Amino acid sequence: MNAMTETRPLLSVRNLTKRYGPRIGCADVSFNLYPGEVLGIVGESGSGKSTLLSCLAGHQTPDTGEVIFQTAQGPRDVLQMAEPDRRRLGRTDWAFVHQNPRDGLRMGVTAGGNVGERLMAVGARHYGDIREKATDWLGRVEIAADRIDDRPRQFSGGMQQRLQIARNLVTGPRLVFMDEPTGGLDVSVQARLLDLLRGLVRDLGLSVIIVTHDLAVVRLLAHRLMVMKSGHVVEQGLTDQVLDDPQHGYTQLLVSSILQV
Amino acid sequence: MTDQAYNFAYLDEQTKRMIRRAILKGVAVPGYQVPFASREMPMPYGWGTGGVQVTAACLMPEDVLKVIDQGADDTTNAVSIRKFFQRTAEVATTEATAEATVIQTRHRIPEAALTKDQILVYQVPIPEPLRFLEPRETETRKMHSLEEYGLMHVKLYEDIARHGAIATSYAYPVKVEGRYVMDPSPIPKFDNPKLSNSPALQLFGAGREQRIYALPPFTHVVSLDFDDHPFEPSKAPHDCDLCGASESYLDEVITDDHGGRMFVCSDTDFCRTRREAGHVGRLGTPSQEAAE
Fold first, then answer.
1. Which residues, in sequence order, are CB contacts of A170 under 8 Å at separation 6+?
2. Shortest CB distance from B161 goes to which of A83, A110, A126?
3. Which of B133, B161, B227 comes nearest A125 by C-beta?
4. How far is CA B75 from CA A43, A186, B62, B83, B286, in A?
5. How far is A185 from chain B (nearest CA, A)?
6. DSSP letter for each residue of A163-190
7. Would you call B6 an interface residue with chain A, using a CB distance cutoff of 8 Å?
8. Which residue in the list B31, B48, B50, B207 is annotated as catalytic?
9. For chain A, first and last CA: distance in Å?
10. Active-site residue among B207, B265, B281, B284?
11. Cβ atoms of A194 and A217 closer than 8 Å
12. Which residue of A14, B22, B31, B127 has the fewest C-beta atoms within 10 A of its own C-beta?
């Protein structure tokens, strides 16, 4: 790797637009994401942040725009990729952490099976190795090794979310999409999860796009911030800069709406 | 046939043509589930409506039909389907595997080796091997077309994690010619090796699910497994109590309510042939055989 590839963006989004009939999902979104960077997307409910995320991750097809990802074979427009390639990307270089762990986990499959699924999907066929790797990853997300044969149903909400993270990171993705990863968790569990995420992101050098409406989450995790309103990006910049000196009226409203305890 | 209201082999010729087209497509793409317009048959779903339609489309007046259910020629399902074709196709029927040209089976492959002149028709309840892992049919079809079969190994992983070994003992998933993962119908995994490289044509019909798939002769079929937990065809560790066979698949029969039991070949024709040849098992008596 020379200096040239280091400075190239990992993901480059150009003029992404998604409409639901006459309504706008998200409009004309452009940004670059560099390796090792965490980008936060904030906005109120219905501002188009989840639409944007699912368009980026390939769960929905945007109407116009480009999503250029730096693959091992050079930059490629994900939207123009053949479906098998895109799905392969989705289980190797990419990961998606859902807000509700039930969407991202197989609830009827044990914790070990959940973590091992991505390994088996990319061709792992040695039970002992898969098991060892699953145990290792459960440890990294602070789930006791003796819970490996329990099903997610028997886990608490915070544990389920950590399991989902382990399941996604086991194949060493480079880009992780997160949709409200701390939603629905109580504050102390949230704090632990954020701490864990921050450690993992730093240790693994992950690039992350994290969608949330919780400004505390982006303050802790994100390097850069994008604020969305009614499908449009109204402001973007460094996290501290946006939060401490908001320029757009909506961002000012958002920042001042945080409850002070 | 003029005194009967039925066409030969019950189905009308256009329906048979439609089914034959599905069969041909299935043969051309081994292991691929071909949709077909399954007809209502005069028997309930789950009684082999898929197998019956495939058999009806394959039968010729000179064919000799054998029908087995769990290996036996004399169980309800086998008897009723055999009678059905005796009445609607007036074909000759037999219980001897070697004499049959078309064999419709439920949950077993005959012990006797099949030949290139035979067609084996399986009754399939659930053709989709990924069904219980991924309930969406749209998704499973996509997984088949993109060859995304990691999920199948999750099921085997779960078996080992819970039971210490791959506990799936029937409907054991196989990979056909390195491409499609296929449900071999609920045959015991003991029979799985017989799927591969068989000289006979093997056809699978699922009536309720409206799918036909096929294994042409000499197709390479591999049972899925892990490197450190290889596939093992298993059977009860006994010999047949009637004919003494040690290599056949056995049924356990409870004989009284004091724990008495016996193991007998599930393939009745195989067992009878052996007894007629003079083999006697633990509970069999030579005089019984002579009487038969």
1. A115, A116, A118, A119, A133, A134, A137
2. A110
3. B227
4. 67, 60, 25, 12, 25
5. 28
6. HHHHHHHTT--SEEEEESTTTTS-HHHH
7. no
8. B31
9. 48
10. B265
11. yes
12. A14
Q: Which are the contacts of B7, defined by CB distance < 8 A and separation ≥ 6?
A: B1, B13
At A201, the amino acid letter reads: V
The DSSP secondary-structure symbol of B113 reads: P
Structure tokens given for A172: 């060493």
To the query of whether residue B58 is one of the catalytic residues in this protein, the response is: no
Q: Do B154 and A106 touch (CB under 8 A)?
A: yes
Using CB atoms, pick whichever of B146, B150, B228 lies closest to residue A127. B228
What is d(CA B196, CA B207) in angstroms, rounded to the nearest whole number?
Answer: 24
ipTM of the complex: 0.86
Question: What is the full per-residue pLDDT of chain A (261 aa) written as tens digits?
Answer: 444 555 789 999 999 999 999 999 999 999 999 999 999 999 888 899 989 999 999 888 999 999 999 988 889 999 898 888 888 888 899 999 999 999 999 999 999 999 999 999 998 999 999 999 999 999 999 999 999 999 999 999 999 999 999 999 999 899 999 999 888 788 888 888 888 888 988 898 899 999 988 888 898 899 999 999 999 999 999 999 999 999 999 999 988 887 766
What is the residue-wise DSSP string for A65-105? EEEEEEETTEEEEGGGS-HHHHHHHHHTTEEEE-SSHHHHS
Check A120 against B150: CB less than 8 A apart. Answer: yes
